[in-house]
């Protein structure tokens, strides 16, 4: 646990000049999978219930492709432009699942959704509406998560619980065609220690449980946990962990 703490606290930067080898990426990925499996074991959960989303925002397309060759089938980007650039490069298997984990500008929704993208970071009603519009002609609904601001940290994105509740209520009464709300996403606040981030993840799960109960709506996915805090997120029920720096340094 002591070593994981340093990951989030040091906010270590990835040096883009430093070459990382395919072997290092593969070793990092294997270590992360082992740590995820261990966290699942401690939490008495099945490791198959937690998806590791490899966050490739720090690295170029060639390095992202190394991670895919190491076996990672889920890639996360925080900028839509970077996601479509990599997805359309021809260098990355076309059957990986892409995840958008950062803010979506509404004018980019159409272009982004030419491919199947799971959007974790819906942070307003207007963004959801733009996704609904861009999903109109799609054969399958676009899966999205609503981003909860759990830390109360103003520097963090995400919606207040009351706003999420009102969006879910509206979706329950008048479901938007073309989108499926599959769960919630959250980030622990900056500078939180392990105990604080775990309490925040716990609050996300409790809020999700409350919404399911109040609205009779299934919200199976919880996207929470990054390089520094994924073990406690898994202990609190995360089904997707978003891991970047540990894979590429
Ligand atoms: C960058 C990023 C991550 C990955 O963070 P690491 O600490 O590098 O693992 C996860 N989630 C979001 C929303 C991010 O922007």
Verbal overview:
This protein has helices spanning 2-10, 22-42, 61-69, 80-87, 109-112, 125-134, 161-173, 194-215, 230-235, 245-248, and strands at 51-55, 74-77, 97-100, 117-122, 142-148, 179-186, 221-223, 240-243. With 249 residues, the chain is α/β, with parallel strands linked by helices. An eight-stranded parallel β-sheet has the order 7-6-5-4-3-2-1-8. Strand 3, helix 5 and strand 4 (117-122) form a beta-alpha-beta unit. Helix 2 (22-42) crosses helix 3. The structure holds pyridoxal-5'-phosphate. The site of pyridoxal-5'-phosphate has 14 residues, from strand 8 and helix 10.
Which structural category fits the helices and strands? Answer: alpha/beta
Strands side by side in the biggest sheet: 7-6-5-4-3-2-1-8
What is the molecular shape? globular
Mean pLDDT score = 92
List SSEs in N-to-C order. HHEHEHEHEHEHEHEHEH
The major pleated sheet works out as: 8 strands, parallel
Low-confidence stretches: 1-11
Radius of gyration: 17 Å
Strand content: 15-25%
Number of strands: 8
What proportion of the residues is helical, as a percent range? 40-55%
Give the CA-CA distance, first to last residue.
Answer: 19 Å
Helix count from the secondary structure assignment: 10
The unique ligands bound to this protein are: pyridoxal-5'-phosphate
């Amino acid at each position: 646990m002591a070593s994981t703490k340093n990951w989030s606290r040091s906010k270590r930067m990835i040096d883009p000049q430093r070459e990382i080898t395919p072997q290092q990426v593969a070793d990092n990925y294997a270590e992360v999978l082992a740590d995820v499996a261990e966290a699942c074991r401690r939490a008495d959960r099945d490791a198959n219930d937690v998806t590791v989303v490899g966050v490739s925002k720090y690295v170029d397309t060639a390095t992202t492709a190394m991670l895919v060759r190491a076996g990672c089938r889920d890639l996360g980007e925080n900028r839509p432009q970077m996601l479509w650039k990599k997805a359309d490069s021809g260098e990355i298997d076309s059957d990986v699942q892409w995840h958008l984990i950062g803010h979506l500008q509404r004018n980019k929704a159409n272009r982004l959704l030419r491919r199947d993208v799971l959007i974790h970071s819906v942070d307003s009603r207007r963004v959801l509406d733009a996704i609904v519009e861009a999903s109109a002609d799609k054969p399958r609904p676009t899966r999205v998560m609503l981003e909860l601001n759990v830390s109360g940290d103003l520097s963090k994105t995400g919606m207040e619980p009351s706003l999420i509740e009102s969006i879910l209520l509206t979706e329950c009464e008048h479901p938007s065609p073309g989108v499926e709300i599959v769960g919630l996403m959250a980030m622990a606040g900056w500078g939180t220690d392990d105990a604080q981030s775990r309490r925040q993840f716990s609050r996300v799960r409790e809020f999700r449980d409350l919404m399911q109960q109040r609205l009779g709506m299934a919200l199976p996915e919880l996207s929470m946990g990054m390089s520094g805090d994924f073990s406690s997120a898994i202990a609190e029920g995360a089904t997707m962990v978003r891991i970047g720096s540990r894979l590429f340094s």
